[in-house]
Amino acid sequence: MRRPAGAGARTPRHLRLLALRLTLFYGAVIFLLVAGTSALLYGSLVSRLNQEDDQFLGHEVRLLRTLLQPWPAGAAELRQEALSEWNHSQYARLDIRILDAAGTTVLAGAGMQRELPRRRFPLPAGMAATAIPGRDVKGPGHRHFRVVSALAPAGAARAAFTLQIALDRTREEQALAAYQGDMAIALGLFFVLALGAGYWIARQGVRPVEASFARLSRFSADLAHELRTPVNNLRGEIEVALAHPRAAADYRTTMESALEEATRLGKLVDGLLFLARAENAQIALTAEVTDVRAELERIGEFYRAAAEQREIRLETALAEGLRARLDRALFQRAIGNLLENALRHTPAGGSIRVAASRDRDRVRVQVSDSGPGLAPERLAHLFDLEARGESREAGGWRTGGLGLGLSIVRGIMRLHGGEVEVASPPGQGVTVTLRMAAEAASAAAG
Ligand SMILES: Nc1ncnc2c1ncn2[C@@H]1O[C@H](COP(=O)(O)OP(=O)(O)OP(=O)(O)O)[C@@H](O)[C@H]1O
Ligand SMILES: [Mg+2]
Question: Does any ligand 1 atom lie closer than 6 A to the CB of residue 406?
C-alpha cells in the first residue's frame, strides 16, 4: 500500500499561493524601504543645494548693502561698481534689480526685465535680516531661478532700497531632473530584483512548511491505512459470529478476541496520537532533575523477572552522579520500549546491557542486546512511517509489535531536547543510544 514516489512532491496550491503572497510582501517591503531611503536622500540633496544657494544669495545681499551704504554717491558710479562685480565670471548666473523707495528701478540686469518681473519676487526681508530664505521661481523657457529680496540702507536717506537678486539654477534643475530619471529606472530594476529576492526568501520559508505538510498528509493517509486492517478484522469476526445462532461459549470466544483486537487498536491510536502531539511539541513535560542511575536501576528491576524468564542476562553499567532534567514517566516509557524490543529480539542465553555515562556535557544512556541485529537497509528506515507499517505486517497484526516503539522513544527524547541513535554493527545486536543535556551534580534534587 505504498503511494507512488512522486506523490507529495508537487507543492499544494495553497502553499503556492502562500509563496506568491510572501514574494509580493517581501518584494514590496524591500522596495518601499529602498524607495523611501532614496526619496529621503534625494530630499536632503535638494535641501542642501537650496541651503548653499541661499547662503550664496545672502552673501550677495550683504555685499550689496555695503556697496549701497555711501548712497547717494551717484547712480552711475554704483552701476559701474555693481556691474564690474557681477560681470565677474563667478557671478555670471546672478542678476539683480535695485528699486528705490518710490519703486523706481534704479538698476536692473538685462535678464531681469526679460525673465523676472519684479512681482515674481517675495516681499523684501527686513534690514536686519541676515538669513533670508530664497524662493524657487520658474522663468520662461524652462529656466529656473532661486530668488531673494531684501531691504538695503540708502546712505543718509531715510528710505531704503529694495534688492532683488536672482540666481540661475537651470543647470542644477536639469541635473536633478536627470538624476530623478536615473533613480526611477534604478528603482524599477531594483523592484524586479526585490521580487526575485522575495521569491527566493519565500521559497526558503515555505520549504519546511511544505515538508511538514507532506508529512501531515502522509501521516493521515497512513493512519487511515493502519486503522483499516484492524477495524476490518474486528468487524469480520463479529459478523461471522452473528451469521448463525451459536453456543454461549462461542460468543464468549469471539468477544474475547474482539476485546483483544479493540485493546490493540486503542494502543495504536494512543501511540499515533502521542507521536503526532510530540511532533508538534504539544506535550507538557513535568521534568525534574533526576538521578539517572537510580532511575535506570528502578526500571531495570521492573524488567529483570521477564528477562530471567527468557533466560536472558540483564546487565547494568551505570556511572554515578549522572543527573538530567527528566519527565520520569516518559523516560520510563522510552527505556521500557527499548528493553521490550531487546527482550523480544534476544534469544535465550543472550544478554541485554543498560549503560549510562557522561559524554562531555551530555548524559549518554545505551541499551544494547546480543540479538540478531538489524540489516543496514532497515536501520535507515527505522523511524519511517511506512517502514513502521511494514514491520507490523511482517510481525503479523496480532503477534507483532505495533511498530511505534522507536518513534515514540525519539518523540520523547526530542521533547527532552535530546536525541536517539540506533546502531547495529554486524554480529553485535542492536545498540540504541540516547543523549540529553546533563545537569550539574550540585543542582540535584534526588
Ligand atoms: N533490539 C532489536 N533487535 C532487533 N530488531 C529490533 C530491535 N529493536 C527494534 N527492532 C526492529 O525495529 C522495528 C521497530 O521497532 P519498534 O520498537 O519501533 O516497533 P515494534 O517493536 O515492532 O512495535 P512496538 O514497540 O510499537 O510494540 C521492530 O519491529 C524490529 O523489527
Ligand atoms: Mg518496540
Answer: yes
Q: Within 92-140, where are the H helices?
A: 110-115
Q: What is the residue with the minimal CA distance to atom 1 of ligand 1? A: 342
**In sequence order, which residues have a C-beta less than 8 Å from that of residue 398 and are 6 or more positions away?**
260, 264
Topology (CATH) of 14-178: Beta-Lactamase (3.30.450)
Which ranges in the chain are annotated with CATH 3.30.450?
14-178
Distance 208 CA to ligand 1 centre (A): 29
CA of 343 to the centre of ligand 2 (A): 10
Regarding the beta carbon of 374 and ligand 1, being less than 6 Å apart is answered: yes
Contacts of 109 (CB under 8 A, 6+ apart): 86, 94, 95, 96, 97
Task: Compute the distance from residue 294 Cα to the ligand 2 centre, in Å.
Answer: 23
Is any ligand 1 atom within 6 A of the Cβ of residue 371? yes
Tell me the whole-structure pTM to 2 decimals.
0.59
Q: Is the CB of 403 under 6 A from ligand 1?
A: yes
* Domain ranges in the chain with CATH number 3.30.565.10: 288-443
Domain 288-443 bears CATH identifier 3.30.565.10: yes
- Alpha-carbon gap, residue 338 to 128, rounded angstroms: 95
Structure letter (DSSP) for residue 122: P
Report the separation in Å between the CA atom of 420 and the middle of ligand 2, taken as the mean of its atom positions: 14
* Residue to mutate, 406, 412, 424, 428, ligand 1, most ligand atoms under 8 Å from C-beta: 406
User: 162 - beta bridge partners?
Assistant: 99, 151
* 446 residues of the chain, pLDDT tens digit each: 444 444 445 677 888 888 888 889 888 898 899 999 999 999 999 999 999 999 999 998 888 888 777 655 455 666 666 666 665 545 568 888 888 888 888 888 777 878 889 889 999 988 887 788 899 999 888 889 999 999 988 766 566 889 999 999 999 999 999 999 999 999 999 999 989 988 888 888 888 888 878 877 877 787 787 788 889 989 999 999 999 999 999 999 999 999 988 998 898 889 888 988 887 777 888 999 999 999 999 999 999 999 999 999 999 999 999 999 999 999 999 999 999 999 999 999 999 999 999 999 999 999 999 999 999 988 888 887 556 655 555 555 555 677 889 999 999 999 999 999 999 999 999 999 999 999 987 544 44
- Name the residue among 165, 191, 204, 178 with its Cα closest to residue 67: 165
